[in-house]
């Protein structure tokens, strides 16, 4: 069944108008749109080939030929930032999808069943949550080797207990409501109630959490790539670019500045977008201004 966010007495046009009056949403939306556009464009075009080494052009400062300068192998940093954007977004997006796809059903099931089932699932959830993405990546890498796929698995596993907790907390607040009692009286099963009534009512909460975890996923991917556990050369990644730049901060600071700014701007945009969505779709969560 397709989930939807039911906001009584508000049409889509009024919601859209409210969204574009929200400063956080507008800023986050356009920043995120810019990063996504850059990533999409990189599939078809980049100023230079990111796999081509031009040693004669190494560590050139930003110029009209190379807007962000070049690295120690003569590669164009703007092109590498563009390709790195698509890698970071792809890893974070799939990892969040794994976390949401497994964690939300688990959390909703735990809230619906309660008792020993709920307790057992939450203790298992705590056990998984005790292993951060970095530690999980190190263990997975030790078995299967480094790579973007293993980074996705590690970050995805870390996201599962996050979404399970959020889904359970939201569902527990919905189950005592009168319309749930009415659904039970109508003979609906716990599974039907969870799908038809509980999940649509916590969709906003999950959407906001998804944007937050997306931002954290990009940070996690950058950290794993910095340690050599993420995307492997010659495929560029923002974290790997920072690793390559750390010994050249004096002679070529632009090698660190531009990928670092890309990470900061992307995470900032996603956090602003999440705050804006929370303000627009959940009036009770509006911050006092």
UniProtKB/TrEMBL annotation:
PANTHER family per UniProt: OLIGOPEPTIDE TRANSPORT SYSTEM PERMEASE PROTEIN APPC, PEPTIDE ABC TRANSPORTER PERMEASE PROTEIN
Source organism (scientific name): Mesorhizobium kowhaii
TM region positions: 24-45, 89-112, 124-145, 202-229, 249-274
One Gene Ontology cellular component: plasma membrane
Pfam families: BPD_transp_1 (PF00528)
Keywords: Cell membrane, Membrane, Transmembrane, Transmembrane helix, Transport
All residue ranges annotated as the ABC transmembrane type-1 domain in the record: 85-274
Membrane topology: Multi-pass membrane protein
Compartmental location: Cell membrane
Major site of localization recorded for this protein: membrane
Gene Ontology BP terms: transmembrane transport
Residues in coiled coil: none
CDD domains assigned: TM_PBP2
Family: Belongs to the binding-protein-dependent transport system permease family.
Protein name per Swiss-Prot or TrEMBL: Peptide ABC transporter permease
